[in-house]
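Bit of a strange request maybe. I'm writing a small parser for C-alpha cell strings and I need a real example to test against, not something I typed by hand. Could someone generate the C-alpha cells for this chain?
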Amino acid sequence: MDLGFKAIVICIKSELLDASFVGREIDRNFIKDLPANVDPCGEYGEFHTFCYDGPIFNNPVKFTIGEKVYREYKNPEKDTKAKKPDSMGFWFCDLIPVDE
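Reply from user aminoacidic:
Good idea to test on real output. This should exercise your parser:
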C-alpha cells in the first residue's frame, strides 16, 4: 500500500470471513477489520486479490465490480479447520473490464 499498489479482494473463504469482505479494496481499514485469526496477506488462503494498479503499471486496469457469488466445494481431506468437514464455501466477486 505504501508503495502505491492497489488491489481488490476477489475471493474469500467463508469459514473465516463474511461476504462483506469480497469486493473490498485492500487498504488500512480492510486490514483493521480482519479477524485476529486471518493473516493480513491472506497467506493461508483466507482471501485472494487482483492487483490492478501500482508503480510498475503503465496504466491502471479499469473494471467494475460485477456479481458476487457463493459456491461450495468438496473439502480436501487435509483442510480440517472447516466448520463443515465435508464442504468448503467461498464468495467470489466478478470483475468486468471497462473499455475506454
